[in-house]
Amino acid sequence: MEAPPYSAAAVDVVRLPDGRTERDNVAVEEPLEIRIGGTPVAVTMRTPGHDEELARGFCLSEGLRPSGARLPADLAANTVEIDAPGFDPGCLQRSFYTTSSCGVCGKGALDAVAVDAPRVTADLHVPLAVVSSLPDRLREAQAAFAVTGGLHATGLFTADGELLCVREDVGRHNAIDKVVGWE
Predict the structure, then answer these.
(1) How far, in Å, CA of 141 to CA of 117, rounded?
(2) Is residue 102 annotated as a catalytic residue, yes or no?
(3) What is the pLDDT along the chain (183 residues), one digit of tens a residue?
């Protein structure tokens, strides 16, 4: 299994205690600017790849209803433009940039953490054998983790355990947002 080229990089590392130098693959982390209507609304650190999904999922997780995501007209690197009709910039106001580690970083008050979303109700029942098999099925699909040992993953499965979508990222929240934003 080979990791996507944007998710891992070969670097020289020094192994301790003997001090020998060798090549190793590490997970890549770069900033991503999310814009709405051309205005930057968030910068998050992420593993490159599936950036439109990440931006769309981030906005959905913030309670927005994005209608699309695309590379911006100015083709700025590490940037995604979100279409969000009726967007209120005040709903995403943060005190500093976000990181790959936490979706609430920078929120100024507990009220800002709450998201106005309908309650999920379902009668889904999944057999224990299916649930217990999911971690192994997810791990088998983690190409970048297999190479680097340093990425989180989120998977979307059917009730029968069929893997529909897997996304990896240095940030747990980002891996989830990539799946949430998957179409």
Answers:
(1) 31
(2) yes
(3) 788 888 999 999 999 999 999 999 999 999 999 999 888 999 999 999 999 999 999 999 888 889 999 999 888 889 999 999 988 877 766 554 555 555 555 555 566 556 666 788 999 999 999 999 999 999 999 999 999 999 999 999 999 999 999 999 999 999 999 999 998
CB 167 within 8 A of CB 154: yes
Terminus-to-terminus CA distance in the chain, angstroms?
24
User: Strand 152-157 relative to strand 79-83: parallel, antiparallel, unpaired?
Assistant: unpaired
Which of 59, 102, 105, 165 is labelled catalytic?
102
**Positive or negative, the Cα torsion across 7, 12, 18, 19?**
negative
